[in-house]
């Protein structure tokens, strides 16, 4: 009987490829990107050349056709160098998958080749200034006008806003219920599409975030994904994978900080001995490692459930996202404490990871909303 906890040869191969890419391209530059608030577009092209632009896009759609566990392994590996870049690639993959899964043949032919290659970058636009956790209350409208829609509204906190080429936007085409929401694709350069100023953030400085503003934006009806009224279902299906991916970003960042803390406590001496020799240090490291492995096991299970389309995949993706992002933040915080005052300085990577991982408990649905999803599913 095979070991269910052992990665397959194919899974190890994608993990090792992502680890190599991270070590060569991401880790050496991540601190500079953060300091300079620089978005490394060229790194996205390099990622696309390795197949990281369409990890779970079907082979028929030009992607790699792998499962969600393989995607989580790759994203976790990249987050070891920079959670911001890993999260950006995660969001892009979600967009590419949604186009592949719900777009018609013409839409896929027009956009998938560029998305998979990461020559074209995609943004996911659900959140609005007045509807964050209550996503079904979105107010952005798409009024039908013959063979076109006319779009009006504003999307908030959009990763890649103003930089990316394609925007998947959830709009209201019907009544005020979730059944009144549809999903449309808008290309950068479409008249009436504009962007707010780049947001000034605590972290994620290597990834631009801005409002996406729609003022009488006219697009063909053929830019719709799925049927009218299927937008909320599409958005939620995308979020199952997005939650696992953002959890994977927390795993990678937490693993990096544990590794940094282990090395630092071995090297740093206080009261005539290495910090690592103190029992308290060992106990804290033990708790950090245990919490990380528990999060990793649940997240990998949730990823497998999404690939298998298991009926409880939404609950498990919410559980995995909550546990991995809560534990990721706590692990990085404890690592910073081990570094003492040095952990607070930008000379060391811990403070960057502390800033970058904090937002994971908010995006792709706050962890409070994850608790709602889990509780409601248990009680239904």
UniProtKB/TrEMBL annotation:
Family membership noted in the UniProt record: Belongs to the acyl-CoA dehydrogenase family.
Protein's UniProt name: Acyl-CoA dehydrogenase
Pfam families the UniProt entry points to: Acyl-CoA_dh_1 (PF00441), Acyl-CoA_dh_M (PF02770), Acyl-CoA_dh_N (PF02771)
Entry keyword Oxidoreductase: yes
Organism, scientific name: Novosphingobium ovatum
InterPro entries recorded: Acyl-CoA_DH_CS (IPR006089), Acyl-CoA_Oxase/DH_mid-dom (IPR006091), Acyl-CoA_Oxase/DH_mid-dom_sf (IPR046373), AcylCo_DH-like_C (IPR036250), AcylCo_DH/oxidase_C (IPR009075), AcylCoA_DH/ox_N (IPR013786), AcylCoA_DH/ox_N_sf (IPR037069), AcylCoA_DH/oxidase_NM_dom_sf (IPR009100)
The Acyl-CoA dehydrogenase/oxidase C-terminal domain, residue ranges: 229-378
Cofactor: FAD
């Amino acid at each position: 009987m095979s070991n269910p906890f052992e990665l397959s040869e194919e899974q190890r191969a994608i993990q090792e490829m992502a680890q190599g890419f991270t070590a060569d391209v991401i880790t050496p530059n991540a601190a500079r990107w953060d300091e300079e608030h620089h978005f490394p577009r060229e790194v996205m092209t390099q990622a696309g050349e390795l197949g990281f632009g369409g990890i779970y896009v079907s082979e028929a759609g030009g992607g790699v056709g792998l499962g969600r566990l393989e995607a989580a392994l790759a994203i976790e590996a990249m987050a070891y160098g920079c959670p911001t870049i890993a999260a950006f690639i995660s969001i892009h993959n979600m967009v590419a998958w949604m186009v592949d899964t719900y777009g018609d043949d013409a839409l896929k032919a027009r956009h998938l080749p560029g998305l998979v290659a990461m020559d074209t970058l995609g943004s996911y636009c659900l959140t609005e200034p007045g509807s964050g956790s209550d996503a079904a209350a979105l107010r952005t409208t798409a009024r039908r006008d013959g063979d076109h829609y006319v779009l009006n509204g504003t999307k908030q906190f959009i990763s890649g806003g103003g930089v990316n080429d394609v925007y998947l936007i959830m709009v209201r085409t019907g009544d005020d219920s979730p059944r009144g929401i549809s999903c449309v694709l808008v290309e950068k350069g479409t008249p009436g599409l504009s962007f707010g100023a780049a947001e000034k953030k605590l972290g994620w400085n290597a990834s631009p975030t801005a409002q996406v503003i729609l003022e009488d934006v006219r697009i063909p009806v053929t830019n719709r994904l799925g049927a009218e009224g299927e937008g909320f279902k599409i958005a939620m299906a995308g979020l199952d994978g997005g939650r696992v991916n953002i959890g994977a970003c927390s795993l990678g960042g937490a693993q990096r900080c544990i590794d940094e803390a282990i090395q630092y406590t071995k090297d740093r001496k206080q009261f005539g001995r290495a910090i690592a020799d103190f029992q308290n240090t060992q106990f804290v490291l033990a708790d950090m490692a245990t919490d990380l492995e528990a999060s990793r096991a649940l997240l990998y299970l949730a990823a497998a459930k999404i690939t298998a389309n298991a009926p409880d995949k939404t609950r498990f993706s919410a559980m995995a996202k909550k546990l991995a992002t809560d534990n990721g933040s706590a692990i990085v915080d404890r690592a910073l404490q081990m570094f003492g005052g040095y952990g607070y300085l930008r000379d060391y990577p811990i403070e960057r990871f502390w800033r970058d991982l904090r937002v994971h408990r908010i995006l792709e649905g706050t962890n409070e909303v994850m608790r709602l999803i889990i509780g409601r599913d248990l009680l239904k």
